[in-house]
Amino acid sequence: MVVGNRQDSAVSDVMSNCKSCYKEIYLGEEYRDIDGDYIHDETDCIQQYVLAHSTRKIAGE
């Protein structure tokens, strides 16, 4: 027996939002925890996050 609306958005499988692409991370989905920031375990999200949170330097300069 289901009480209430099955489509109720208050009951969700969303664990958090990706701090790189800002899309939802769902329960059971693989993700990376980088200093408390949750990132999709996908190359694009990881690369985008690293570029946004680091400083590019040139060796010797």
Write down the oligomeric state.
single chain
Instruction: Indicate the percent of residues in helices.
Output: 10-25%
Structural class by SSE content: alpha+beta
- Measure the end-to-end span: 68 Å
Order of helices and strands: EEEEH
Q: What is the count of β-strands?
A: 4
**Gyration radius, in Å:** 17 Å
Largest sheet at a glance? 2 strands, antiparallel
What integer is the average pLDDT? 88
Tell me the overall shape.
elongated
Count of runs of 4 or more consecutive helical residues:
1
* Poorly predicted parts: 1-5
Percent of residues in β-strands: 15-25%
> What is the strand arrangement across the widest sheet?
1-2
Task: Report on this structure.
This protein is an alpha+beta fold and 61 residues long. The chain has a domain of 39 residues. The chain has one helix and four strands. The chain has a two-stranded antiparallel sheet. A two-stranded antiparallel ribbon has the order 3-4. A hairpin with a 2-residue loop joins strand 3 and strand 4. The longest helix is centred in the last third of the chain and has 10 residues.
